[in-house]
Amino acid sequence: MNILVIGAGGREHALAWQCAKDANVQQVYVAPGNAGTAFEHKCKNVILDAAASASDHSPVINFCKNNAIDMVIVGPEAPLVTGIIDACRDAGIRAWGPTAYCAQLEGSKTFAKEFMAANNIPTAAYQGFTDVVSAKAYIDEQGAPIVIKADGLAAGKGVIVAETIEQAYAAIEDMLADNKFGDAGSRVVIEQFLQGEEASFICMIDGENILPMATSQDHKRAFEGDTGPNTGGMGAYSPAPVVTQEIHDKVMAQVIQPVVDAMKAAGHPYTGFLYAGLMIDESGNPFVIEFNCRFGDPETQPILMRLQSSMVDLVSQGLAGQLPKQAKWDARPALGIVVASKGYPESSSKGDSITGLPALSTDPHKSVKVFHAGTAINPNDEQSVVTDGGRVLCVTALADSILEAQQAALSVTAAISFDGAHYRRDIGHHAIARELAK
Predict the structure, then answer these.
(1) Is 307 inside any structural domain?
(2) pLDDT tens for residues 31-57?
(3) E strand or H helix that includes residue 28
(4) For residues 81 and 152, is the Cβ–Cβ distance under 8 A?
(5) Of all helices (H) and strands (E), which one includes residue 134?
(6) Residues 6 or more apart whose Cβ sits within 8 Å of residue 24
(7) Count of structural domains within the chain
(8) In terms of domains, do 17 and 81 share one?
(9) For residue 7, what is the domain's CATH number?
(10) How far does CA 299 lie from the centroid of its chain?
(11) Cα angle, residue 19 at apex, residues 13 and 25 outer, rounded to 5°
């Protein structure tokens, strides 16, 4: 079996690594991949037509036909929003992910909020705006703290949690007046600030059946103590103890099942991964902060470290409309620490030499794995690796406790070095506080 994984990040490295472990898989192609996937067992990076537009999926179709691809797994949101699944299906190619219609849940914050309102899915109160004056007037009415979101795709960075009116004004100016996020920020959604603890709830859906993945918690803020600007994610761990069985059942009944039912009723059955970013309030009630139409990053890395079922089998079952109700998981927790490049999240540095990377291992029992994201092979030395983006690596460890997983990941992370490297040392602090309180 040959598989094509679309994407270049840590999520895609983890997906490719999981697929390559399957004995039935001969080759995993990753387009375009990174330095980690270039060196990974049974994996090969491929560059498709760089001249093609974002909405032209013919290079993927042609590659699949020319290389006997049995299955396509799409990692990032952009190709999903522009209809890569629709294009693959039309060409008779088996591809895992939601259609362009369903991917609007991530592609448009306005679509997502209106969808949630129409289907009684709990979420923050909100209003959408396209002009600065009206947006500022609404902020004056609501006060701070308040959340400002770019309507479209902004690579996980189009969300500003404004602690003051002045910060909210600045975010509005950046998005609507200064075009900081391009077309993604030409419309903004302003939301009520929700109190509580966040969790990531990710499922596989085949249009009818729902398979919940292991729960996880992301850390969006750049600095320790959950301070600093929002990022695409500085680390994650799985499972998230904040999601008790009672809360799990509420999320399935109040969030996930309504999405599946509404999309099916609209004539657009939801297939693929669905990510619900949640805020759990002090009463144990879940509210949707955002939907993503794909696996989260960096949540994918610790979740897939724990997955003992075959990802290839699960996707095959999903494509056949026969997802099981549960997968097999390692009972131990896993935790991943993102190592970011100089200037992230406002900017990123490329071409900085990375040292201290542990050797890749094909041992499935190895307890620490370094997943690559913003990396590339050094053009002057094919055996060395350089930075190639904002989030560079995710050092992920599996251990008997969250604290032990954190310490194992930190130990490996401390040996890795490149100019401007920075990471949080407190990933998992909510769960660790619960462990220590027992």
Answers:
(1) no
(2) 999 999 999 999 999 999 766 777 899
(3) strand 27-32
(4) no
(5) helix 132-142
(6) 1, 312
(7) 2
(8) yes
(9) 3.40.50.20
(10) 6
(11) 135
Rounded to whole angstroms, the Cα distance separating 244 from 354 reads 40
pLDDT tens per residue, range 376-413: 999 989 889 999 999 999 999 999 999 999 999 999 99
SS3 394: strand
How many whole angstroms separate alpha carbon 285 and alpha carbon 199? Answer: 12
Nearest to 325 by CA among 245, 206, 244, 199: 206
Q: Give the burial class of 262: count Cβ atoms within 10 A of its Cβ; 0-12 exposed, 13-18 middle, 19 or more buried.
A: middle
Q: In a 10 Å sphere around its CB, with 0-12 CB exposed, 13-18 middle and 19+ buried, how is residue 385 labelled?
A: buried
In a domain, 286, yes or no: no
Residues 84 and 168 in one domain: no
Do 93 and 6 share a structural domain?
Answer: yes
Closest Cα to residue 76, out of 32, 114, 109, 112?
Answer: 32
Do 165 and 143 contact (CB within 8 A), yes or no? Answer: yes
In this prediction the pTM is 0.91
Which residues, 6+ apart, have CB-to-CB distance to 399 below 8 Å?
Answer: 332, 333, 334, 335, 367, 405, 407, 408
Q: Where are the beta strands (DSSP E) in 33-178?
A: 43-45, 71-74, 95-96, 126-129, 146-150, 159-162
Is residue 92 located within the same domain as residue 17?
Answer: yes
pLDDT tops 90 at residue 154: no
DSSP symbols for 70-93: -EEEE-SHHHHHTTHHHHHHHTT-
424 contacts 234 by C-beta, under 8 angstroms: yes
Residue 301: left (phi > 0), alpha (psi -120 to 50), or beta?
alpha
Positive or negative CA dihedral for 316, 319, 322, 328? positive
- What are φ and ψ of residue 279, in 5° steps? -115, 125
DSSP 363: -
The average pLDDT across 149-157 equals 71
∠ CA(286), CA(288), CA(292), 5° rounding?
A: 135
Q: How far apart are CA 172 and CA 164, in angstroms?
A: 13
Contact 350, 389 (CB under 8 A): yes
User: Using CA atoms, how far apart are residues 385 and 188, in angstroms rounded to an integer?
Assistant: 38
State which residues form the domain around 146: 131-186
- 369 by Cβ neighbours in 10 Å (0-12 / 13-18 / 19+) ranks as buried
